[in-house]
Structures are given as C-alpha cells and as structure tokens.
Write a structure and sequence with these properties.
single chain, alpha+beta, OB fold (Dihydrolipoamide Acetyltransferase, E2P), PH-domain like, 7-stranded antiparallel sheet, 6 helices, disordered N terminus, disordered C terminus, transmembrane, membrane, transmembrane helix
Length: 379
C-alpha cells in the first residue's frame, strides 16, 4: 500500500510557498526596477556630465570645474576591520573658508599628502571632486563617475532573483502537482543557476569598464549558465523521473534492509500523523523488540509505539508531508510510511538510521507474535 494524497489538501499546504514566492518575487523586481531604471541612470548621467565639464570661465557657475588653492590644516584617518580605510583633509582656502574633503585609502599612499602642504582642489556642483597634490591627482569620495556601480550591483541580482521568484510562484501555484518531492529539481536547478548569474552580474557591475560592458558580461555569463543548468536539469529529470509522478506505483520507494538493534539506541527523528503518539518528541529509541518516541536525545519521557503500527515503505520527503523537514548538512532524511488501523503515520529520520527503525519495528512484531503462550501447569 502506498499513501498518496491527491486531494485539495496539498493545494492548501503549498499556499505558503505561493504567497512567499509572489511577494518576494514582486518585491525583488520592484527594487530592481527602482535601481536600474531610476537610480542608476541618474547617477550615470551625473558621471557623464562630470566627464564633460570644462574649467570655469569668467561667468563661473556650478557646472564648470572651479579650482582653488588651499593648505592642509589637519588629516584624520580611519581604518575598518578589513584593514582598508579612508582619510579626511581639513583645508584652509585662500579666502579663509574651511573645507572638509574625504578620500579613500591612506594619506601615505601615492600621491602622498602631509599637514602644511599647499594643494589645489577642484569644485564641481558645490563639492570638491579631486585634489592636485605635488605628486599627482587624487579623486575624492564625491567623484560621481562610478556612482552607478552600486545600484547596478544590487539591481541586476535583484532582478534575476525576482524572475526566479516568479518561476517559483508559477511552480507552486500551477505545476507543483508534477512532483511531490520536498526539494524538486524544478526549483533547485533554476535557483542554482539564478544565484550564479546574480553573482556574475554583481561582480561585473563593480569591475567592468562601463554599464554596457557589465550588461554584456552578465548576458554572456547567463547564456553559459543556462546551458549548464539545462544539462543539469536533464540529468536530474532522468534520475528523478520516477519520483516526479503522482502515479500510484510508488516508483520512488527506497530499498532499505532492516537491521535489528542489539541494544537501545537513541535516534533523531519524529513521528507525524493524526495519531495520539505523533509529535511527542524529537527522538526515537530503537531497542530489541520495541520502538519508542522520546522528548529528548539524552533523556526525557518516552512512549512506546503500538503494535498496530505497520511499516509500508521508505521514500524521500514530500512537500505534502505534515511538519517541516529534518534536512541539514549532516542529515539526509527519508520517510517511513506506516499505517495504524488505517490512519497514515509518517516516521522521518536520517537515511543511515532507517535500517535500525525498520529492524526495531520488525523485531517488535516477532517478539509479540512468535512466542506462544505457555500451557497451564497440570495440577
């Protein structure tokens, strides 16, 4: 017997996935649109205006480059935990005005600057954009030429992950009946590809020579990743095609050989279902002739599983299973489908522990049925 839920219950169970995917996907796309269509173009235009600016003439104005002489009165340095840092120059201009200008790096790095040094600083649109030291030019942190990189580095990955969010919404809303697996390849293959493309986009935005170059690198990387994920998807489909069906054949049954326990062993696992002993604890206690649930891995109350509990088969986790997953870096869970007087019961535990659980259930059956009752003594 294979327990398969084909009712509307599964649709109610994946409602959280539908809502979460739609909300996160729309939010990511909205952030991407804001950064890529509004913020980045504005900052890109400002950088182009700065590149096109020329030295001021007699008429002056904020859109021209205005240079003034100033003396370095003070240098304030700051270093972060990674070792990189910045510094600020407190300048006294020839007209007596003070200016506070921030630079990246260190004042000891070329071009160097020291207190008392006379330098030329250049204003554009009311801010000092660069300073000319005797040893060279240094652009301040108000340099607008690369300001578009940060919104691109966030906007491109956000847009890519927003597209995955929309695919995830479509999967949970319309296509989730194609696979009962808790982690179907139709989700983990696309999300792996999207994360890879998002990483490429973020790096390209920060390192490419221009916005166009960053988009070309991202597009080329996306084509390569798409080809790789297509191959991975085909491989996963071939490996899981038995799992990705709602047919009644139980193609995803996992062969597990029972191993009778020789001593009491505590196993991480849970029992779920509409029975009184479900969700009693976080551990199972496998012993010769018995299997119990316990409230703790190192102790606590225990409750014996009844003799009416009958194991049916071992299979992967389904998203229709009650409760959450036990999957982690150390745990690869499987589910033992059971039946207790017609009521479905699910025992979830690590793959390596399923033989002991099956062995404990079988030895329990043997110990309760194989020993005949002793005849009454003859008077």
């Amino acid at each position: 017997m294979v327990i398969i839920d084909t009712s509307g219950r599964s649709r109610r169970q994946n409602r959280a996935g539908i809502y979460a995917s739609a909300i996160l996907g729309c939010l990511a796309l909205a952030v991407a649109a804001l950064l890529l269509l509004i913020v980045a173009p504005v900052q890109l235009d400002e950088g182009r205006d700065f590149d096109a600016a020329r030295p001021c003439t007699a008429q002056g104005g904020d859109d021209c480059l205005r240079s003034v002489r100033a003396t370095v009165a003070e240098i304030a340095t700051h270093r972060n935990r990674k070792g990189s840092g910045s510094y600020r120059l407190i300048l006294i201009q020839r007209d007596g005005k003070r200016a506070d200008v921030a630079f990246s790096g260190s004042p000891e790095a070329a071009p160097t600057v020291s207190v008392g040094r006379d330098i030329a600083v250049t204003y554009w649109r009311g801010q000092v954009r660069f300073a000319d030291y005797p040893s060279g030019r240094k652009y301040s942190r108000a340099d607008p030429r690369d300001d578009y990189r940060a919104p691109m580095a966030w906007g491109l990955p956000a847009g890519i992950m927003g597209l995955f969010g929309m695919w995830s919404w479509l999967w949970w809303a319309k296509l989730s009946h194609l696979s009962r697996l808790r982690y179907p390849w139709q989700l983990w293959v696309p999300v792996s590809g999207c994360l890879t493309v998002a990483s490429i986009a973020g790096v390209a935005a920060m390192t490419a020579g221009s916005m166009g170059a960053a988009l070309r690198v991202t597009g080329g990387g996306a084509l390569v990743v798409f080809a790789v994920t297509l191959v991975l998807g085909l491989i996963a489909w071939r490996r899981q095609r038995g799992d990705d069906t709602v047919a009644q054949r139980g193609d995803d049954t996992v062969a597990v050989e029972p191993l009778a326990p020789t001593a009491e062993q505590v196993i991480q696992g849970v029992v779920r279902g509409e029975v009184s002993y479900a969700n009693h604890g976080v551990a199972l206690i496998a012993a010769p002739g018995s299997l119990a649930v316990s409230t703790g891995l190192t102790g606590g109350s225990r409750r014996e599983l009844p003799s009416s509990l009958t194991p049916l088969r071992v299979r992967p986790e389904y998203w229709t299973d009650p409760g959450g997953s036990l999957a982690s870096k150390e745990t690869k869970p499987l589910v033992l489908e059971c039946e207790d007087n017609g009521v479905p019961v699910f025992i979830t535990a690590d793959r390596k522990d399923l033989p002991l659980i099956l062995g404990a259930l079988e030895s329990r059956t043997v110990s309760t049925t194989a020993a005949p009752a002793r005849p009454a003594p003859t008077p």
